[in-house]
Amino acid sequence: MTEADLQYGEKVRIEPGARIYSVADPLSNHPIFYIIAGLIRMEIALANGATISIYLHPDSVFGAVETLLDCPRLTTAYCMENSILYRWDREGFDVASSVSWELALETITGMTRTLRILNAEFGDRLETS
Amino acid sequence: MSDQNYAEIMKIAFQAEEAINDEVIAKFGKKYGDKTVLIKEGDVQQEIYWILSGEVYITRKMGDKYKVMATLGKGELIGEMSFFDKSVRSATVITKGPVEALVFSKENFQEIFAASPQWTKRLLISLSSRIRQMIEKLTDL
């Protein structure tokens, strides 16, 4: 996937340390992101105060889960390095992922990868909880 | 997420009515003879098989022998865990008699997408639901 495939949204620069969204936040106007360059950390907060971090690299899509399900944020997203992101509103993402099979594939692959990480790390705990 | 849950998601995604038509079958349908190895344990292969007719054995190597773990038939999906993201095959799949299947690979995702864009939408929403469920469970631990 190249930058030429990115359309129907806008490019933004994010400073390191910036919080892009927090858990329980309502969805913003542009809730879905694609990482053109940089590093993003997704943080999941457990009830016991511990946190789980998943690091996202360029070509990753994030923010789509809550948007597609129309629910508040499930995680907190931090920018770890100077990053360039492309962001969409729901309608823009629907159109973009309908015309770009590369974007659809990146989004599905990213979700599959997240599920595999969560399953590999915490599958046993979840099955016994 | 268990393998069973993932299989359910993939079934929902692939079994959208619009995903099966003559055009899709003509493009992705393949026929196999008896005792054909479709998937080999230990390989890295990004193909998913959707059985249209016939049955296959799911086997695992135990010592020098292969043990049949399950027999799957029409409508079943095989290989979904490796389809979108590389992982090592955990079982060997062998045909039990003649089998006809749709064979999708990551390389021809573009064609699958063109044949059935709705399949992608269904899959995205299904995967999102699974991620949400897992995160909600984790945050309750």
Main attributes?
heterodimer, A: alpha+beta, Jelly Rolls, four-stranded antiparallel beta sheet, globular, B: alpha+beta, six-stranded antiparallel beta sheet, 4 helices, 35% helix
Terminal residue distance of chain B: 16 Å
Order of helices and strands of chain B: HHEEEEEEHH
Proportion of residues in extended strands of chain B: 25-35%
The Rg value of chain A, from CA coordinates, equals 15 Å
Give the helix level of chain A as a range of percent: 25-40%
Mean pLDDT of chain A: 89
Give me the CATH architecture of chain B, please. Sandwich
- Biggest interface and its residues per chain? A-B, 36 and 32 residues
Total helices of chain A: the number is 3
**Neighbour order of strands in the largest sheet of chain A:** 1-8-3-6
Q: How would you describe the shape of chain A?
A: globular
As for the number of domains of chain B, it is 1
Low-confidence stretches of chain A: none
CATH domain topology of chain A: Jelly Rolls
Distance between the termini of chain A: 39 Å
